Amino acid sequence: DESAVIDNNTSTNQFGRETQNVATNEGPPYSRELANIIFRPEIEIFDTGLVLLSSFIVAVSTLPATTISEPLFDGCIFLEDNILSYFFGIAFFVRWYAVGQLRVNYLIKPLPFIDFIASVVPLVLTNAVTLLGITNFPVWMMSSSALVNLRLLRILRLQELLVDLDTFASLGRVLGFKEGDVRPYQLQLARVLISITTLVSV
């Protein structure tokens, strides 16, 4: 479980999450303390809420202009482009520092790689145009549909919370569930729901 740091060698599972010593004393300064903070169940639930909010906003932004009021549409775009995109971009680098310890091989693990594509690439593309004036990107990369699809990939980050029953149960306790209330079938059901949501969204 990533919420506790153990003085053993780091081990990872197929999802790329460090399941034991998420940040050792040999890592960058304060990486261990950061890891203990960002993998607290309360923080992960907050992050989950922002992922769902972002997915909802991105979905709303694809609606025809006639089906949504202009102030609401503009507010959704502002929130996504100026707040959430920066939050997810910064959060990725914090995780890379704390968990990946700035190692390049961390970026080739499945979920960290998806996190990079969904959190950093859209931020770079939008700011490359607005701040740096770079316009020689391929058209397909800068299209609104491409950015929408990239941002919707963020929902795959929720798979990190469903790695094992212990991680899932720790989140349940924060939400008020008792220790014995969280069952294996609930974890499997959550995995199915996240998979279906991902397929529908993307």
In words, what does this structure look like?
This protein is an all-alpha fold and 202 residues long. The protein contains nine helices and no strands. It has helices at residues 31-38, 41-61, 70-98, 110-119, 121-130, 139-142, 144-152, 165-174, 184-201. Helix 1 crosses helix 3 (70-98), helix 2 packs across helix 8 (165-174) and helix 3 (70-98) packs across helix 4.
The largest sheet is: none
Q: What is the average per-residue confidence, as pLDDT, rounded to a whole number?
A: 75
Strand residues, percent: under 5%
Helices, by number, come to 9
Shape: globular
Secondary structural class: mainly alpha
User: How many angstroms separate the termini?
Assistant: 29 Å
Any low-confidence stretches, pLDDT <50, length ≥5?
Answer: 1-24
What is Rg? 18 Å
> H/E element string?
HHHHHHHHH
What is the number of strand segments? 0
What is the helix content? 55-70%
List keywords for this structure.
202 residues; mainly alpha; single chain; 9 helices
Topology of helices and strands:
Blueprint: H1 31-38, H2 41-61, H3 70-98, H4 110-119, H5 121-130, H6 139-142, H7 144-152, H8 165-174, H9 184-201
Concise account of the structure shown:
With 202 residues, the protein is mostly helical. It has 9 helices and no strands.
